[in-house]
Amino acid sequence: MRVGLIYAGETQVMLQCHVDDNTTVGDAIESSGILRMCQDIDLKRHKIGIYGRFVKLDNVLKEGDRIEIYRKITRVLDDDDDDEDDDD
């Protein structure tokens, strides 16, 4: 069956993969080669989803699923950003 895999980290990658029935998310990620292409991916740290819904690595895929590897999003506050709305 065909599934997609995307990652937008230091490198943006979008792959189409053919996997066997009953393949898990983790197995598809491993066999896709994306971990060699994007060495900043850490499956213990990064969240994984299918169409915006978090899933675990042992989740079994369905035809047409799109695996999404989410990078950690951080926000750096400036000195003048106190997270309060200014009325002035």
In terms of topology, how is this protein built?
Elements: E1 2-8, E2 12-18, H1 25-32, H2 34-37, E3 47-50, E4 53-55, E5 66-70
Parallel strand pairs: 1-5
Antiparallel strand pairs: 1-2, 3-4, 3-5
Shape: elongated
Helix content class? 10-25%
Biggest sheet character: 5 strands, mixed
Name of the CATH superfamily: Phosphatidylinositol 3-kinase Catalytic Subunit, Chain A, domain 1
Backbone structural class: alpha+beta
Which CATH architecture is right?
Answer: Roll
Task: Describe the oligomeric state of these chains in a short phrase.
Answer: single chain
Q: Which residues form runs of ≥5 with pLDDT under 50?
A: none
**What is the third-level CATH name, the topology?**
Ubiquitin-like (UB roll)
Distance between the termini: 58 Å
Radius of gyration: 17 Å
- Report the portion of residues in β strands: 25-35%
How many domain units? 1
What's the total number of strands?
5
